[in-house]
């Protein structure tokens, strides 16, 4: 079942990718049923809070009619950042299944550990590495294409600058 | 100016108090002007994400038309939890002024440190203790009255149970 639900989270990540958003996808599952979905929409919504996890937690709270997401499991393609890890704690999500680590921003152990920190009054049970390579691949593909696009844009900018200089020289 | 803006955050905390919410208040300031306000509405909105900081960041992003809250200072009566500390990082808030520490849930040094952690690509400048006693007082007042109310409810419940038993004895 873990693989099936992570595939569903990857479908959400793909939606983010198509909108030029960093491709992270999420589903929240209760009694083997998906009760909420989300994907990163930070740039589209111009809002730093619009990570997939936050969007999915909002939907799940609405669906369940309360702030405690009891008996819920979140499947997320990439390790949640501190904000999302804190939101998972705040909503009392019990289980978290993560595709791949985020060594730069991870809030579940990679940079800080919020979800299994004994200092807090709630602890999340975490499972790592479900469809890890698929979750990493879509991220690498995204950042590779982003770098290539930026490179092409830079080249185009330089070309235009050269053309402008040439036309100025001709005029003088 | 710090005292003035923290007084404004305390006014927001008072609004939460009046709705039986844990009294935490927030204002976000840019160019010495309050651009967003918020207070804890977790129980009222039945949503674990509805902390004052999150509500204020949402409003500020809408006001500024982008996810980067550049040149912004957040004033908050109580140390943000990990979710809110992460949201402050995510929105690139530059300065954070905190009234009082939260030794149980604090995400700015008390339990974990997210906002000045050298492991992340952004660091927040933090100032502690502005109107500290006022910020602590409203919390203590809230939890004292909550304990008293719960005690009174328990007493009432026991009284009703006794009455029920008495009437059952009379009937038999």
Quickly give the structural class of chain A.
alpha/beta
Number of helices of chain A: 4
Give the amount of beta strand of chain A, in percent: 15-25%
Computed CA radius of gyration of chain A, to the nearest angstrom: 20 Å
**How helical, in percent, are the residues of chain A?**
40-55%
Q: What is the N-to-C order of secondary-structure elements of chain A (H for helix, E for strand)?
A: HEEHEHEEH
- How far from one another are the termini of chain A? 72 Å
Poorly predicted parts of chain A: none
Oligomer: homodimer
- Shape annotation of chain A: elongated
Question: Please, what is the average pLDDT of chain A?
Answer: 96
The total strand number of chain A stands at 5
Main sheet attributes: strand count, strand direction, barrel closure of chain A? 5 strands, mixed
Provide an overview of this structure:
The first copy, chain A, has four helices and five strands. Chain A has about 170 residues and is α/β, with parallel strands linked by helices. Chain A has a five-stranded mixed beta sheet. In chain A, α1 (about 1-20) packs parallel to α4 (about 130-170). In chain A, about 40% of the residues are buried. The interface between A and B is large, with 41 and 40 residues.
């Amino acid at each position: 079942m873990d693989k099936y639900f992570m595939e569903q989270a990857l479908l959400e990540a793909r939606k983010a990718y198509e909108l030029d958003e960093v491709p992270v996808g999420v589903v929240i599952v209760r009694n083997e049923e998906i009760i909420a979905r989300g994907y990163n929409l930070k740039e589209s919504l111009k809002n730093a809070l619009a990570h997939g996890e936050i969007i999915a937690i909002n939907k799940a709270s609405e669906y369940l009619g309360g702030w405690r997401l009891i008996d819920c499991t979140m499947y997320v393609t990439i390790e949640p950042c501190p904000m999302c890890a804190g939101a998972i704690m705040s909503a009392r999500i019990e289980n978290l299944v993560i595709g791949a680590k985020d060594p730069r921003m991870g809030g579940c152990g990679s940079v800080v550990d919020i979800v299994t920190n004994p200092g807090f009054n709630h602890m999340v049970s975490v499972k790592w590495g479900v469809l890890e390579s698929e979750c990493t691949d879509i991220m690498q593909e995204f950042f590779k294409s982003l770098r290539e696009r930026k490179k092409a844009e830079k080249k185009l900018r330089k070309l235009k600058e050269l053309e402008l200089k040439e036309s100025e020289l001709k005029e003088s």
